[in-house]
Automatic annotation (TrEMBL):
Keyword Amino-acid biosynthesis among record annotations: no
Organism: Nonomuraea ferruginea
Superkingdom in the source lineage: Bacteria
Family under the similarity heading: Belongs to the LysR transcriptional regulatory family.
Cleaved signal peptide residues: none
PROSITE patterns for this protein: HTH_LYSR (PS50931)
Keywords: DNA-binding, Transcription, Transcription regulation
Name of the protein in its database record: LysR substrate-binding domain-containing protein
Alphabetical list of SUPFAM superfamilies matching this protein: Periplasmic binding protein-like II, Winged helix' DNA-binding domain
HTH lysR-type domain: residues covered: 2-59
InterPro entries documented for this protein: LysR_HTH_N (IPR000847), LysR_subst-bd (IPR005119), WH-like_DNA-bd_sf (IPR036388), WH_DNA-bd_sf (IPR036390)
Length: 289
């Protein structure tokens, strides 16, 4: 019988690439992960890993088992959700990840709704960059997370996760009538590697130039403060520009950011996840977006 916990480690190895990365995510030692994967190979009866020095790759049999592992783990999530529904209303810890603007604007009214409707739920919020959400959900560090995607940036797909669209919001340019008009200006963008940074670079490239990024800032309140001080132009979403500083002019653009709720595949029927998503929608209905 194949052990689902070991299958989870094999799936994580296929995604993270190294034993050390899997160990860090699973809060195990690398030695413990290696032992678990060796035990899985014995259970499977075929080699699953190819070891060359310190490098470990999956064999064809290993890759085949990962494909089946995803289906097994998804069914276990469905079983967990079904059992939770039988037990009654949602209760217990609910670990929610969110990017900063959603945490500041959307989560407070959503949490108030949850507290009133489901007092047995205990939400625990963590700010997290959307780029890190997939790994955190797969590792069980989060139950549900608010993520976003931008025009010009293809969404990151993960077959271990499902998403539910929540809303779309326009993007604004600070203090210029169009992106092309800011070709000679200093720019404020997110940290390299974030979706916000990639969106800014590609939007400028689509307008025919490479932006001169002077400042790398992830918090949009700070971005707007820098723009108000004349330190550069920036692209900001509507959710971050509900109360801009005085002196900052915002030009709406035909670009959008879309926010989604993400959760492990098969887990969407869990009463706590359904309650959270319902609260997100109710909070959005009360916002002027």
């Amino acid at each position: 019988m194949l052990d689902p916990r070991k299958l989870h480690l094999l799936r994580e190895l296929s995604r993270r690439g190294t034993i050390a990365a899997v160990a860090e995510a699973a809060a195990f030692t690398p030695s413990a992960v290696s032992q678990q994967l060796s035990a899985l190979e014995r259970e499977a009866g075929v080699p699953l890993l190819q070891r060359t020095g310190r490098t470990v790759t999956l064999t064809p049999a290993g890759r085949l088992l990962v494909e089946h592992a995803q289906a097994v783990l998804e069914q276990l999530e469905r079983a967990s959700a079904a059992l939770a529904a039988v037990r009654g209303g949602p209760s217990g810890p609910l670990r929610v990840g969110a990017f900063p603007t959603a945490a500041r604007v959307l989560l407070p009214p959503a949490l108030a709704t949850l507290a009133a409707a489901h007092p047995g739920l205990v939400p625990m919020i963590s700010e997290i960059d959307p780029a890190d959400v997939s790994a955190a959900l797969r590792a069980g560090e989060l139950d549900v997370a608010l993520v976003h995607e931008y025009d010009f940036v293809p969404p990151v797909t993960d077959d271990a996760l499902e998403t539910e669209p929540l809303f779309a919001e326009p993007m604004y340019l600070t203090d210029r009538p169009a992106i092309a008009a800011a070709a000679g200006d200093p720019w404020i963008a997110g940290t390299p590697g974030t979706l916000c940074h990639t969106m800014t670079i590609r939007a400028c490239q689509a307008a025919g130039f490479e932006p001169d990024v002077r400042h790398h800032i992830d918090d949009f309140d700070t971005v707007l403060s820098f723009a108000a001080a004349g330190q550069g132009v920036a692209l900001v979403p509507r959710l971050a520009a509900l109360s801009p500083p005085s002196g900052v002019r915002l030009t709406p653009l035909p670009l959008h950011r879309r926010t989604l709720a993400a959760f492990r595949r098969g887990y969407g029927e869990h009463p706590a996840i359904q309650a959270a998503i319902a609260a997100f929608h109710e909070a959005l209905a009360g916002l002027s977006l």
